């Protein structure tokens, strides 16, 4: 379902360079990034043993600017 949603975001928004996705099953999240051509997924990470890494990823996403989250700053809507 996350992969389909990422595909829909890329298809419906021409200003997008990529889309980010996260799935969490029990205590193991997987991070995904989808470009126009391909999709890359991380290996599952255990939240209990790698909690600092997981929090760092969430903080990085929360504090990022729009262009760091996939918006193309060189394009504008007309």
Structural write-up:
InterPro entries: Pkinase_fungal. Pfam families: Pkinase_fungal. This is Fungal-type protein kinase domain-containing protein. Residues 2-76 form the Fungal-type protein kinase domain. With 78 residues, the protein is α+β, with helices and mostly antiparallel strands. It is built from two helices and three strands; from the N terminus they run αβββα. The chain has helices at residues 2-12, 51-62; strands at 19-25, 28-34, 39-41. Strand 2 (28-34) and strand 3 form a beta hairpin. The protein starts with a helix and ends in a 16-residue tail after the last helix.
Short description:
InterPro entries: Pkinase_fungal. With 78 residues, the protein is α+β, with helices and mostly antiparallel strands.
Task: Summarize the SSE layout with pairings.
Layout: H1 2-12, E1 19-25, E2 28-34, E3 39-41, H2 51-62
Antiparallel strand pairs: 1-2, 2-3
The N- to C-terminal Cα distance equals 31 Å
Indicate the proportion of strand residues: 15-25%
The figure for the number of domains is 1
Number of strands: 3
Low-pLDDT stretches:
none
Report the biggest beta sheet as strand number plus sense, adding barrel if it closes: 3 strands, antiparallel
Round the mean pLDDT to the nearest integer and report it.
89
Tally of helical runs: 2
Oligomer: single chain
Computed CA radius of gyration, to the nearest angstrom: 14 Å
Pfam families: Pkinase_fungal (PF17667)
Domain Fungal-type protein kinase: 2-76
Organism: Hydnum rufescens UP504
Protein name: Fungal-type protein kinase domain-containing protein
């Amino acid at each position: 379902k996350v992969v389909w949603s990422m595909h829909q975001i890329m298809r419906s928004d021409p200003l997008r360079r990529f889309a980010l996705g996260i799935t969490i099953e029990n205590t193991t999240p997987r991070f995904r990034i989808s470009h126009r051509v391909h999709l890359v997924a991380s290996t599952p990470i255990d939240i209990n043993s790698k909690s600092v890494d997981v929090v760092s990823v969430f903080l990085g996403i929360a504090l990022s600017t729009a262009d760091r989250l996939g918006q193309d700053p060189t394009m504008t809507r007309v």
